[in-house]
Amino acid sequence: MRIWLTQAVARFGYGCGLAATAGADGAAPPDDPRSWLARQLDGADPAVFAGLPDTADGLIRLREQRRLKPPPGQSLVEPLFRAELVAQLDRVWRGDTPFRERLVWFWANHFTVSVRQNGVRPIVGAFVREAIRPHVDGRFADMLLAVMRHPAMLLYLDNAGSVGPDSPAGRRSHRGLNENLARECLELHTVSPAAGYTQADVTAFAAILTGWSVDMKADRPGFGFRPRAHEPGIKSLMGRDYPEGEAGGLLALDMLAHHPATYRHLATKLARHFLADDPTPAEIGHVGAALRDSGGDLKAASLALLDLPRAWVPGTKFRDGMSYAAAVLRALGPPPPTPAVDWRLAATGTGEAEVPAMAGGPRAGPDPGGASGAGGRPLFAAPAPGMGPSARPEPVGAVATTDGYVPDRPGTGGATRSYAQAGRGKRPGSPLAGAAAKLGQPTWSAPLPNGWTDEATGWNGPEAMMRRIDWCFAAAGHHPDLDPMEVAEASLGPLLSARTAAAMRGAGDRRDALTLLFSSPEFQMR
Predict the structure, then answer these.
(1) Low complexity bias: where (predicted)?
(2) What is the pTM of this model?
């Protein structure tokens, strides 16, 4: 039975590891794998993010930052982003419902919103908590609507400024349609090009979505429908007519959410993520049937994956950068907590300061001692995104950050510092975020709306593999007292190959042995 338990955590979660008790952070589940996975989708989401800012808080910060125009090195929005980063990645690293967490990140990638687009940074975390997380075990139609109405998506794909050419606003300003959101919703989020839609459908859908915008002037900013920017008249999308007004958009999204092509597209992506890069028609059909028969129930689709034999065959999926980093961190054992990032403060060049009074907020900030904000104590550091692998290991006690590594001040003994102590560019953050960035997958920063690839070819190139070896060597250096064979037993168990075990036993020291473990084919796969 142990091999199936280990496979369940590796394939549907983020890997096993050292822990004090069975079932705790990083440990193998305590009973049979399928029921353990299924139970994670029962009832309410156990993740609690008390005190984190909502979308309105983020938009207020964005509005004030645009008004105040702080100088370089100062930011009203950066503390919000860092607070979300620490809290949400903490669930990946330390949480005991890894299947649910993997689904959260799968759907967040499906509906990619990237901080590469101006205006998204202070609300990307709220987008995941508000539009994705509540619906991973619910109806796809509900998730789609939540995503399409969320300010993060409307800003990311430029629909907030889309204006119907014949609308009152369009005639006055001579502005027109922006087709980005309509195109990506059809191509990536719902039916896919396999449905045979045309450019005329894209244009019609963009017209349907005119007026779906963000009200930045409200005391609590958020989604707002602007009737004067909406293109008047009936529109035809994929052979069906839709009325003008916001109601037309609601009807169109409901149609797309339940379209047979959408079910097949979603089934293909789920099977590719959880089974193999080349899912078979039968595997796709099984998941698609679960969606069709349940009216788009995502829990039914997720459980259907567990029925498929390849779900339980080890080594059919290559770990992407974030999954690999999470697996290594979980293998090394649960970290002690670190204080939450206080998003209520403004980042300055020399520390943090109180935020000026702002209309409509902000609300009360986080409880620094609450579980929602507890991240892991930085164990090691990672170079900034875009830097190549380095033969120089990071200094012991370095503080992991979202944008590089910062050696501890002399005399601190490696203690975590507050941002006020760190100053500009030295922001304690999530070790997982720093590691994922070095491995080519900076959090919420996908370069394109199609998100990060699920296929091995995007992650197993020569340079990418050298980065993994360099990074895991640095990580292993911070755990000189761990027994490598105990780590191997906890993280891989019966999946550890005789060849890897022999190489580890012959290693020169514990650090080399751990590096061999984390570089092995069986650890790279899930």
Answers:
(1) 356-366
(2) 0.85
